[in-house]
Amino acid sequence: MGLLKKAEFENVVAINAHHKSAIHADNTLTIEQVNRAKTIASETKQPLLEALEETSGLSPEAFVVALGQLMHYPAFDMLQLHTMTPDFELLTFADASKYSCIALRNNENGLYLLHANPFDSHLQSKIDLMIHQPVIWGLVHYKDLNAFLAHHETSMRAMDGLTSEHLDSQTTQNGIEDISLRSISEDTSPVVKFVRSTLYDALKAGASDIHMETDAHGLTVKYRIDGVLSFEGGIQGIAQAEQAISRIKVMSELDIAERRVPQDGRFKVLVTGSEGQVNAREVDLRVSIMPSVFGEDAVLRILDRKALSDEAKGLSLETLGFEPDIMARFRLLAEEPYGMLLVTGPTGSGKTTTLYGILSEINNGEDKIVTIEDPVEYQLPGVLQIPVNEKKGLTFARGLRSILRHDPDKIMVGEIRDAETAQIAVQSALTGHLVLTTVHANSVFDVIGRFTNMQVDPYSFVSAINGIMAQRLVRINCAHCTVADVPEAALIAKSGLTQQQAASFNFKKGQGCGQCHGTGYKGRKAIAELLCFNDVIRELIVTREPVRKVKEAASANGTRSMREAALDLVKRGETTLQEINRVTSLV
After folding, report:
1. Residue 22: pLDDT above 80?
2. Which of 264, 287, 386, 529 lies 20 to 30 Å from 367 when distance is taken between CA atoms?
3. Among 213, 218, 184, which Cα is nearest to 201's?
């Protein structure tokens, strides 16, 4: 293979100047350290690269730069990877995964071969046999490389041979789709392979929803991860897009001939681990099919019950990340013997999870706790949980009436959707039961208007209500790649801050790394505003005073807005202005 000239190599090395300048003089690796790591790797049977990183005591970013200096390779980080385009025609995705080496091109069409393990002495000779043109060899952290490959994995597998029109219906013996790497590799139908690989990758990435959007050119696949949609790949061609959507409809037992009206369905998949059926688990998916200009779109909501059950074992308000003051006041409201406690927010803001968290805390075995939900997401021991079944006539309202005859102490209603359910819930709270429930509204004050629109008597409502909490989920900066940040003046002004106020903030942001899949964010934290009712607020609502006066009374009673809570996170460097502007309103 031809090598580039020394001057060209030095230009590439210069790309990493900002990394090297940030590394102290002692952040280096020596041959002695490598030899010591070889001994440890031999004794512990772990890869040499991992042993060396552990014993070096360096951060992943500093380690890859120090290793590059020792082995005479320029080092690349996740941000630089995303500025280049992978060339999977030159080095296939399968070979890139097999050898932990990827071919990339930059804007000048320069060719780079980035690998993770410089101790693999046979790698370069293997690649020499595949590529016969000048390249620049570089080094990248193996976690960054794996994350970058995972980002492109869906589209690579999905596009593999997607030309057949055959819609296979391979399932397990119980009629449940088998999702595993083995089943994907054995699929003969490219459509089945595409759908299965999309589901598998979404589950592996921890997505909550899969969006399959048809456009003029084919099908685009997006995953919702931590509340944000991310592009994952797609397929070309309207015919192929129709086949993929039809496959989803077949699995959901929907009418594949009907393409003019929305359809809803659900199906289950059996996700098999690397050890086979021993680690297999069933995952439910709710499907929404919607007609569009170019065909049909599908959205699949993932309900991984085993993961949710495992999560529920240690579920509490602390695990959700609420501020201590909010948790203390919310717990006091949940310990009331009767009344209604409402949690509000948009879809996906963690309302139900919050109610499960407080239920887990107050579930001491002394009270009869009954829930009615659609669907039952977490399974709580000692709690009677009833799933809504509208096809059979079991609605929230009908179920709630039946629950009242079951001698409950505490009731959780998954969601108040209509006037009948709202009125029964209020009456339940007034007759000695503690009712926990959710409703869709933008703020705690909007809830009042929602109940008024549902024809609930204001006096009954304020007599029943103990408190309302509105919440959102905010993405948190990745702990592995967070650095100090200086936001632009325009962003500060857009966020409603003055330069003087911003001077007291500890601004930080994530650069993007293998741990956070290049997003700069890892994990989410709940922010909330809590309205506790007192006589003054109740009187203002009953007399239908303007919302402005209710807000003033609430503020005097200790209510802080979600925007203030979000700004506190930015002030402490836990998230960014861009993120809180996405989630909360200035008003």
Report:
1. no
2. 529
3. 184
| Angstrom distance (rounded) from CA 138 to CA 101 | 10
Residue 18 has pLDDT above 60, yes or no: no
For 525-559, the pLDDT digits (tens) are 999 999 999 999 999 999 999 999 999 999 999 99
Residue 174's φ and ψ, nearest 5 degrees, are: -90, 10
287 touches 252 (CB < 8 A): yes
Beta carbons of 191 and 244 less than 8 angstroms apart: yes
Tokens matching residue 49: 């690269």
Contact residues for 537 (Cβ-Cβ < 8 A; gap 6+):
462, 531, 550, 553, 554, 557
Q: What is the 3-state secondary structure (H, E, C) of 370-406?
A: EEEECCCCCCCCCCEEEECEHHHCECHHHHHHHHHCC
- List Cα–Cα distances, 85 to 19, 148, 152, 253, 516, in angstroms: 22, 11, 11, 40, 20
Report how many helices (DSSP H) and strands (DSSP E) the chain contains, helices first. 26, 21
Alpha helices, DSSP H, located in 508-561: 535-542, 547-556
How many other C-beta atoms lie within 10 A of the C-beta of residue 189? 20
Give the strands of the sheet with 75-76, arranged side by side. Answer: 75-76, 136-140, 111-115, 101-105, 85-86
For residues 154 and 385, give the distance between their C-alpha atoms in angstroms, rounded to a whole number: 37
> Containing H/E element for 199?
helix 190-205
For 218-271, the three-class secondary structure string (H helix, E strand, C coil) is EEEEEEEECCEEEEEEEEECHHHHHHHHHHHHHHCCCCCCCCCCCEEEEEEEEE
Which amino acid belongs to residue 465? I
Query: Strands 85-86 and 101-105, how do they pair?
Result: antiparallel
Which two three-digit tokens encode residue 570? Answer: 């930015």
205 closest CA partner among 304, 314, 73, 348: 304
Q: Is 549 left (phi over 0), alpha (psi -120 to 50) or beta?
A: alpha
**Cβ atoms within 10 Å, residue 294:** 16
Query: What is the residue type of 522?
Result: K
Beta-carbon neighbour count of residue 372 at 10 Å?
26
Please tell me what DSSP assigns to residue 130: T
